[in-house]
Structures are given as structure tokens and as C-alpha cells.
Design goal:
single chain, alpha/beta, 7-stranded mixed β-sheet, 27% strand, binds adenosine-5'-triphosphate, binds magnesium ion
Amino acid sequence: MTANEFITRSAEETIAKGREIAAKLRPPVLVLLKGDLGAGKTTLTKGIISGLGAAREEEVTSPTFNLVHEFSNHIPAGSLRRAGAFPCKVYHVDLYRIESFHDLETLGLEDALSEKAIVIIEWPEHFAFRTDWPTVEIRLDHAGGDSRRIAISDSSAEARTM
Ligand SMILES: Nc1ncnc2c1ncn2[C@@H]1O[C@H](COP(=O)(O)OP(=O)(O)OP(=O)(O)O)[C@@H](O)[C@H]1O
Ligand SMILES: [Mg+2]
């Protein structure tokens, strides 16, 4: 398990960090984003998903109401968009409003991981997850003004080599 900590001083810096993180992600992987309201989980996700080549930053919005947004980094026909290095589905999930196990089952997260997707989850604390999936856990904390502390624990690299 490796832990890395960074400070960003603007939303743009957090998006840039998300792009760096994206470059290291290999499906299947669960990316757990922890941190208070407004800590920057969705902002970081804009960087991750745009870095994966699955959508533009402005297409990544909070899945607060529909709980799951689905993207893909396969090249859409007729698009100039860059293809991801590892073509896969990318799911952006927000469990802030999850209310029951039934809700969670309807999200299809198990299916998402069995099809070797990249699954990014905000508010993972709202549900207990199995832990045998390769997981990158990222904690974001307010650090005064527009500063945020971002701590990354990556157990996915070890999982890949086992
Ligand atoms: N360094 C920074 N990193 C990320 N966001 C920042 C930073 N500085 C200011 N912000 C602002 O903080 C807000 C972060 O909101 P964001 O939706 O990303 O948080 P969140 O953690 O997803 O919240 P929620 O729990 O409500 O989903 C945005 O308005 C963003 O512009
Ligand atoms: Mg959010």
C-alpha cells in the first residue's frame, strides 16, 4: 500500500491532479473518493474522466440525483476525441443519497467491475464494499480557502501483480 499526499490551491489544480491519476488507472479498478461536502470529489473526477478520454470536463457533473453516470473511452464514431489507452466503461457514482441495499443493487456495480470497468465512487462510506477489488482510495480535505489536501492510497498496483 502506498500513500501519497498533495496540496492543490484551485479547482484547476485538482483537475490537473485528476488527469495524472487517470494516467495510472487500469481497469478493473474501484476509485473511492472520500471527503466532506465541497471537498472536491466531483472536481477531481472531472480530471480523471477527461484524462481517461471518456468525456470532456464540462460533461462530468455530479450524479447526485441519478446516482450513476456512465461513460466510455472507446472512440465514438466520427469523433476526434482521444481514445483511452485501455478501452473500457467508466462509471461515476455518488452514494450520498443511497437509501437501501435495493438501491445499490439497482446500480449494477458488481456487473460494472466484472466487465473490467473503472468505477469512481463519491461517498463510498455510505455503503460497505467488498474489498477484494483493486482499489484506489482518495481522501480530499479542506485545507483553508481554496486549498485542498489530497491523499491517495493505491492498492490496485499490488492487486494487479498478485
Ligand atoms: N483546490 C480545489 N480543489 C477542488 N475544488 C476546489 C478547490 N478550490 C475551490 N474549489 C471549489 O470547491 C468546490 C468543490 O465542489 P465539488 O462538487 O467538487 O465537491 P464534492 O466533494 O464533489 O462535493 P459533494 O460531496 O457535494 O459531492 C467547487 O466549487 C470548486 O470550484
Ligand atoms: Mg460531488
